[in-house]
């Protein structure tokens, strides 16, 4: 469904993403992990059209979407969320979600109806009239998810939706993400914390210093010495095995 | 909801009956309230709803005033026909300024300053090119017949201002209830998030400035027809830009009734200082005193009341 | 075609005017560079300083050049207090809010001046106002030469102060990395107020240097606002060198614009430069920030 081929992006002299490739197939939940500063968010931003890649290609369902504007990528059914949540502060949760729902309809009643349905799906039905600015961290994360869902995507790019949440909240949102996938939406998610991904994703990519260093099932990844070293430092794999 | 509708109907009723009972100078003040609310609303649609703060909105006002006046004086158009042409011109100028500025990625203060510079360019041009008659300004020949958009009885110009104001309120009301308006607010609150949710931010911003420019230009023509005279500093001076911004900010930027409330508030201040001046002889010059008060209000409102005077009417305080 | 001698004289006069512009723009760019705010009240504050110079002369008989230390110090204090009490406290850290607050302040200052001082054009008669220095075909007014030299000297002193003094180093640290500066124990809010004060102090000095050849009215500030913004944008927001180079370019542009296009149309050059720089190269000639 999504194919990323040899994508590179530098800022100044710094290579944030270096020839990274990945595939996401219809109906999957795919994880993208890596230590802090590995370039995950940059890769996401480049896929979603927020940064123009220096090299490489992004295709969605066979069409080249490299460097299309974010709004046209969204219109083609791929939408991203932000790690640092960006609620529209001065309007209600309902109106926040309606902004997403308006992508495919100009009808206010229909958009409001869809917003309510999506709110129910992510567990925000009781908060529809709260202001965006008044939400807790967990609320903001859900709102990010809800707005993105309301655009009616086929592929959802989630950037650290679990960061900053407590264990109970994580359990809840993991269930929400599963439900979303079961409703037929494919998911690519970034996580900093490996455990969170292993319980969700069928396949995992590991990015380190801008390069894709491993790909496989969560179990295989956890045993990959390269991955362990990326997370724990040079030589760690040997120590662990001993 | 229905309470608000009743309030609106009562307000409109009073506004319609008012000139039948008021003396001419009060009718004139009422006319100015609605006129300033109208051009203030044109600012509010771009600056309040969409968050694109402009310091040079007068560029549209002057474009409208000069377009209809030149068509009328130089090319003998009927002013009623010149009016839509003026709006078209204002819309085109709005489109061009928005296209250039937003293509260059200008935001926030930079956008505010570039609009100021555009207004300045237009002012200097109007001062220098022959077809505006330069600094002399342009006089529209007095011929007080409705067909000429000139009226003997001030009541008619009052009603036209009222109609303009009501139309602008309806436009603002629509924006609170349709997709275009929702997108503008999203852009104001967070451009990146808006973009991620499929909004073509550039296109929407160009659209709103075009609409705002056309509205403001309509105000320019109205002004020219009321006073039958314009010159570069009236039509393109900073004062009008500031006035539009002030009434919206004071009343409540991004709210439907903000510009109207702001316009009423500023008129009240104006009249109070005028009254004060007649008692305290040291204050013979009224205009600056009320402007001092406006300036202080602007500072206080930015500091304490981000929703302007409208914020006082809301039960639930909103976050900045 | 114009006589090259006249053009030469025009360029020289533009350079001289540019000296004052540099001083005004350095104040503006310092405030931007450190606080990252656009001080829309810059022109109005210059106007107030010019009135201070005027009244010192009219009421006490103080020569503008003698008044320079006093007015500069007074302007610093005024700027410091204004930042502490109003701008810093009310803006909630939002860029548009600062713009609106400084706009509000400029409305207050302009109209308060009109209210208290009246709308008349005020000038100062100093004995040396009519003295000229001949340079080739150009006659240069002595006060303009003095203001040119003095404003450049002040800029150099300010530059040295920023480079060498502890406060200057702290200001530069805050300009570069305010979080880091806070972490190493610099009182960032105090540095903001000091920087704003220094920016306004530049206006105090500029007012003293301007008044012998210029006039003041409540709207005098308006003439300088767009000029100062253009210089700062042209040079690159926050860049000292940029402000200096920009000041001279704008001074010369204005002089030549007036020469070729006439008094009215000549002013258009500045606004056009401003627009074109913002549209085409918003970082300016020496700026690093977008």
From TrEMBL, chain A:
GO terms for cellular component: plasma membrane. InterPro entries: AAA+_ATPase, ABC_AA/LPS_Transport, ABC_transporter-like_ATP-bd, BCA_ABC_TP_C, P-loop_NTPase. GO terms for biological process: D-alanine transmembrane transport; L-alanine transport; L-isoleucine import across plasma membrane; L-valine import across plasma membrane. The keyword Transferase does not apply. GO terms for molecular function: ATP binding; ATP hydrolysis activity; L-isoleucine transmembrane transporter activity; L-phenylalanine transmembrane transporter activity; L-valine transmembrane transporter activity. Keywords: ATP-binding, Nucleotide-binding, Transport. This is ABC transporter ATP-binding protein. It comes from Reyranella soli.
UniProtKB/TrEMBL annotation, chain B:
Its main location: membrane. It is found in: Cell membrane. CDD domains: TM_PBP1_LivM_like (cd06581). Keywords: Cell membrane, Membrane, Transmembrane, Transmembrane helix. GO terms for cellular component: plasma membrane. PANTHER family: HIGH-AFFINITY BRANCHED-CHAIN AMINO ACID TRANSPORT PROTEIN BRAE, HIGH-AFFINITY BRANCHED-CHAIN AMINO ACID TRANSPORT SYSTEM PERMEASE. This is Branched-chain amino acid ABC transporter permease. It comes from Reyranella soli.
UniProtKB/TrEMBL annotation, chain C:
GO terms for cellular component: plasma membrane. It is found in: Cell membrane. Its main location: membrane. One of its GO terms (biological process) is amino acid transport. It comes from the Bacteria. It is a multi-pass membrane protein. The chain crosses the membrane at residues 6-33, 40-60, 66-86, 98-118, 145-163, 191-217, 223-252, 259-280. Keywords: Amino-acid transport, Cell membrane, Membrane, Transmembrane, Transmembrane helix, Transport. GO terms for molecular function: transmembrane transporter activity. The keyword Phosphoprotein does not apply. Belongs to the binding-protein-dependent transport system permease family. LivHM subfamily. This is Branched-chain amino acid ABC transporter permease.
